[in-house]
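FORM 7B: Structural annotation worksheet

SECTION A. Query
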Amino acid sequence: MLASLDGKYMSPQEYLEWEEHQEIKYEYINGEVFAMTGGTIPHTSIALNLASALKNHLRGGFCRAFMADAKVGVTENGPFHYPDVVVSCDERDRQAIKFLQYPCLIVEVLSPSTEADDRGRKFIQYRRIETLQEYVLIDAEKISLDCFRINDKGIWELHPYEEGDEVHLTSVDFRFPISLAYEDVQFAI
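SECTION B. Predicted structure
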């Protein structure tokens, strides 16, 4: 959930320096900062399940998986977002301290208050990242995963997965039952 911080304009450098001293995370979009508020327990469980599985899958290789505290910069000057899970296999991100800039996989866990933004504005911004190969949206209220994958013609294609399906994340060659993402998740009744 995002909450604007009084519409005060900041340069990208001001934002990066300012945010280091904040108690909560803030996304940066077009000179404005937006507070990141907490998610639900199912949201957190889904992100942790997938991040843990990705970390195990990638262990010993060159790629690295990160969770919600890893900031992604679409460019050096922003926008800056905090995806729920992100993977980078790019040498240029190996020494990153403040933010990643060359991910191959970004995952957002959806909530009713963020779904439109994750499917719309954020996806438009993330598509500007040249190294991004897959953008995954996972529903936190029912078993459903949408994987947007760029094809060899540069077109983003939707690969939807539902209960009982095996998911294939081609950017990191990882196959898993969709149920893995929902392990120990209790849906609201």
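SECTION C. Observations
The mean pLDDT is 93. Residues 40-181 form a domain with the tt1808, chain A fold (CATH 3.90.1570.10).

SECTION D. Sign-off
Analyst initials: ____
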